[in-house]
Design goal:
By secondary structure, the protein is of the alpha+beta class. It is built from 2 helices and 8 strands, in the order H-H-E-E-E-E-E-E-E-E.
């Protein structure tokens, strides 16, 4: 059996072929661009024409002004030539004329001459009065403050000067007192010079001459470091009772004489060791 031939395209759905869009929008864009370009070109042409017309009118005005300036210059030159050409004519000599003939009167000639050859001097201006302005209140306040400060400084300086004078007076008085005291001390030192005479005293009835006196040990307390000594001056006893170690015992032998000093440096069981200071020279 022969195959049946049929058209397959009848049973298939025909596909829509893409349609090409009509270039209407592109045409509109071209039209707008053409219109804009035409307007721009027209505006350029209009502005160029207006500029050319303005330049032409300005040039015409400039030419007119130059012409007027040239005419004015020419007129000035003509007037200057005419002024230079005018001169004073000399007076004609007197001629006898018959009385019957009447001569025409001479025509007067006028000449313009400057009144002075010197240039015009300007009128001196009137002197402007100097106005002295009164000092401002702030300046017055500053001046018063400065004056008060100067016064205060002067008072302080004066007070300081007075105090310095007082101090100088006190210092001078103290210097005088020191000088007097120094002189007194020098006199005392010059009057008496001492010499230390050492001794060793044993307890008992024995006497030991030391310098201008004679010493005798009466009692000794080694534990308490105390002692008692009898100082004989011309068989008269001056008892130095209950003295301690290293004590400076000052006594006077006679009225008006220099004092003597006795010092015990060691206190032993039955013995003391020390020295006696006696004056060696008198002024």
């Amino acid at each position: 059996m022969s195959g049946i031939e049929f058209d397959r395209q009848v049973f298939t759905t025909p596909m829509d072929t893409p349609r090409k869009p009509v270039p209407q929008a592109f045409g509109m864009v071209l039209l707008v661009l053409a219109l804009g370009l035409a307007g721009f070109v027209g505006y350029k042409i209009f502005t160029q024409a207006s500029q050319n017309s303005a330049l032409a009118s300005a040039k015409a005005q400039v030419d007119q002004l130059q012409q007027q300036l040239a005419d004015s210059q020419k007129r000035l030159e003509d007037m200057e030539k005419h002024r230079r050409a005018v001169k004073v004519e000399p007076a004609a000599p007197a001629v006898a004329v018959p009385t019957a003939v009447k001569t025409a009167p001479a025509r007067p000639v006028y000449r313009v001459v400057a009144a002075s050859a010197l240039p015009p001097q300007p009128k001196p201006a009137a002197p402007v009065p100097t106005v002295v302005s009164a000092p401002a209140p702030a300046d017055n306040a500053k001046t018063e403050a400065m004056q008060s400060e100067l016064t205060a400084n002067h008072d302080a300086w004066q007070a300081t000067t007075d105090r310095l004078a007082d101090v100088v007076g006190v210092v001078g008085q103290q210097q005088n007192e020191l000088s007097e005291t120094r002189e007194t001390v020098n006199q005392l030192l010059a009057q008496t010079r001492r010499q230390a005479l050492s001794f060793e005293l044993m307890r008992g009835t024995n006497r030991m001459p030391v310098g201008p006196v004679t010493l005798q040990l009466k009692s000794v307390d080694s534990k308490a470091q105390r002692y008692s000594v009898c100082v004989y001056v011309e068989d008269r006893c001056i008892e130095l009772k209950d003295r301690v170690l290293n004590e400076v015992v000052v006594f006077v032998v006679s009225k008006g004489s220099a004092p003597l000093e006795l010092v015990a440096t060691k206190v032993l069981r039955d013995q003391i060791v020390g020295y006696l200071e006696v004056p060696t020279a008198k002024q």
